[in-house]
Amino acid sequence: MTTDLEQFPVSMRFLHWLTAAMVLTILGIGVAMVASLADYHQLVSIHRPLGFLILVLVVIRFVNRQFSTMPAFPATVSSGERFIAHASEMLLYTLLFVQPLVGWGMLSAARYPIVLYGPLHLFPILPHSVMLYAALRKAHTVLAYLLFFTFIAHFGAVLFHTLILRDRLFSRMAPYRVPAR
Amino acid sequence: MPTDATPSTDQPAPLSVPGTLARLAGIGVVLLFVVGGFLYLGGWFSPHELTPARFVNGFQKVFGIHSGFRRNHAKGMCVAGYFDSNGQAARWSKADVFRPGRVSVIGRFSLPGGNPYVADTPASVRGLGLAFRPQNGEEWRTAMIDLPVFVVNTPQAFYDQLLASKPDPATGKPDPEKMKAFLAGHPETVRALTIIKAQPFSSGFENATYNSLNAFRFISASGTSTPVRWSVVPFDPFKPAEPSQPATQDRNYLFDALIARIQSGPVRWHLIVTAGQPGDPTDDATIPWPEDREHVDAGTLTLDQVEAEAPGNCRDVNFDPLVLPVGIAPSDDPLLSARSAVYSQSFTRRAGEKKEPSAITPSDVRK
Lengths: 181, 367
Ligand code: HEM
Ligand code: HEM
Hints:
The complex is a heterodimer of chains A (181) and B (367). In chain A, β1 and β2 (120-122) form a beta hairpin. Chain A has helices spanning 10-33, 40-66, 79-109, 130-165, 169-173; strands spanning 114-117, 120-122. Chain A is mainly alpha-helical. In chain B, α2 packs across α7. The radius of gyration of chain B is 26 Å and the shape is globular. The termini of chain B are far apart. Chains A and B meet through α1, α2 and α4 of A and α1, α2 and α7 of B. One protoporphyrin IX containing FE (HEM) binds at residues 55, 70-73, 76, 108, 110, 127-129, 143-145, 150, 155, 158, 212-214, 285, 318-319, 335, 338-339, 342-343, 346-347, 350 of chain B. One protoporphyrin IX containing FE binds next to β2, β3, β4, α3 and α7 of chain B.
């Protein structure tokens, strides 16, 4: 009965990989669309609803996390590392929450209609102000790069633990069930 | 097994030093690959490809940077009014704006080019940006000009023509050799210029016809897609422009005449929607559609208010031609996505800059 306690609960693992796939996709779409003339419109039309879905998902994830029992860290993860891991997780949650709000806010400040899909659109959350738009548009770029580098650090740390220390850190979040040894 | 620290007996045998190094190198390669993939998507490995940022740099190279102003169609003035739809276009498009009724509209009249203080001339091309704002939160934005066809049919050609028209610092005029070379490679532009020259310019903003030029698609309630182009056709009678520069010293004489016209009473246009037949090009704005194509008069555009550019009015709106309501969709014209991308880049740059007064000032507009 305790054999798979080493892993995160199924709901957390599911939400983790769903968010990961969506965030990597939206980052890719984001950098590609601002460099493209031919695909700009198509990509930005996917970017907006995908970003909004991430906002919804991150709220669900955060709530779900409060109600879940998380597995303890392996002994190979030092207390310093635990602090860094925890801090980087909180940073990721914060970025994933703030970034879509900045996207939504900047389009509000620019007075664009914020179309998600068909007739479905978001109401403006900020007054029309181009100076505000300019600041938020810049923040959206900075936060996207910060998100990307946090992801690289997170991914690198997991690879290091799993391949060098071989402490099965990856198994804790693996999308499949891993029996305890 | 306890949930905390995994017993050390579960630890695999330690790696050899070369094994550790090989794995570290492997991790490095994976991370580089991910970073490289994103740089690739962001166009970092294709420095010669035309991007929205490079396009706007092109405008800045030719016209300089005028803080706070649009990189193209920089000189302009705001108007407002309403559109009375008669319901005629509803059979082609389910868009809210085409149901019978009134929708509020804001607009901006402009002259092309990146110089916000350029002098009006009889042969100035005139631009009109409109934003239709129905109650349901949707918007329909369109930016039109008073030419019968556009001069290029690809974004690259627009860019090449833009740079070919850059004034030579020595003469203050574009290098005729460069323009000749451009035209030699663009027979479609030569044909378009012939069509444009055959049609006289109108005397003012108020009696000009403004055309979408790019094709779009109207989507009906039953899902049928119809290729369309639209125009606003003035109620005011057409009067050809005087061929020579008017004797006036007024650098804004076109704008000033429009201000006087609006202050004497509302100015009206018919919104004419033309449907293309199979075979009519939807991806080439240099080619006119045949004269006999079916069209409807969708209603009347009335502009009855005029204002100088100011915070929060048309100055701070991006008349992106792909801000469309349900019922209007882009065609396969490659100019459309490019316009959307470049307008966004121009808007973002000017939004954050210090704003200088426009050529048309509040005192010009005061009665
Ligand atoms: C986690 C969520 C999101 C991520 C990771 C993300 C990421 C990005 C990235 C990487 C860019 C390109 C930035 C640049 O290079 O300058 C971008 C641009 C943009 N994003 Fe997002 N974004 C997110 C959510 C949103 C949302 C919710 C919206 C709107 C509702 C939005 C609207 C935009 C727009 C309009 C642009 C710029 C288009 C332009 O400048 O022409 N984003 N985003
Ligand atoms: C690839 C082709 C084109 C490029 C790169 C381009 C570029 C631009 C740019 C950079 C702006 C300023 C946007 C802003 O800061 O808000 C602008 C405005 C404008 N363009 Fe274009 N344009 C193109 C094609 C066209 C066509 C085909 C038309 C007419 C049918 C047109 C009509 C206008 C008008 C009327 C404005 C002024 C809108 C306003 O008042 O805000 N453009 N264009």
